[in-house]
Amino acid sequence: MAVVLSTTPQPCVGQISIMNKFHSISSKTLRHFNPLFKPSTQTLFLSFQKPKTHLQSPPRNTIRCLFTGIVEEMGQIKQLGTSQNGGFDMKIGAKTVLEGVHLGDSIAVNGTCLTVTAFDTQLSDFTVGLSPETLRKTSLIELEAGSLVNLERAVQPTSRMGGHFVQGHVDGTGEIVSMEPEGDSLWIKVKASKEVLKYVVPKGFIAVDGTSLTVVDVFDNEECFNFMLVAYTQQKVVIPLKKIRSKVNLEVDILGKYVERLLSSGFVDSFKSS
Predict the structure, then answer these.
(1) Burial zone of 55 (CB within 10 Å; 0-12 exposed, 13-18 middle, 19+ buried)
(2) Is 1 inside a domain boundary?
(3) Where are the Lumazine-binding repeats (predicted)?
(4) Confidence at residue 100, expressed as pLDDT on a 0 to 100 scale
(5) Which residues face 75 on adjacent strands?
(6) Which residues pair with residue 126 across a beta bridge?
């Protein structure tokens, strides 16, 4: 069954740097650009689109969906183009996540919660919007046509929680600093900012590019943490396909944030005194 798309792709107009395009369409927004998150100079094939409608995402502090960090399939980027709101539209080829899909549904793309703005089940693809803020704060800016991405639909009340509570709100990006095989498994070490690393604990949960993983060790002196991917997982997620110095999206366990908030608010002291 085909669904009428809300956007009409136009022929490719050539290869153009996403950095230059990002500056040209978002110059006002980029006045407060964080230099710690420097976009890649990789190029993208951009096909310009003029969507009839655009579904805006709610504020980031609104919990509208939940994921488990168990990747359902790897999709492939078909097309990237500018949208009327000054951001980008991204078309992704997929099959599993299109089962029962509706306009406005949430799908995590490399761990980033995005809204479906168009889909076609006959062509096996769907479109999501990328705001300038999303490009600044995530590793999605490094994607290009042909890139593979982790995909997961929002969890339903009847679903099994195979991973952990993942909101699809990226806390920051990390950088892969080493990838070392051991038998058929793969050790991966990621460097992260201090703001993110303070929530990472050995044997705790973390979502890396939307994949629920167990942290093995934390190296505070190196500002790094590591994890291991077994052979099965290596075949199901995009992380092993990346290279040293590639960016990955990181979302820490939300429980750590709540604990920090309670401690800083004096809740524990007030509870003891009562």
Answers:
(1) middle
(2) no
(3) 66-164, 165-263
(4) 93
(5) 149
(6) 92, 119
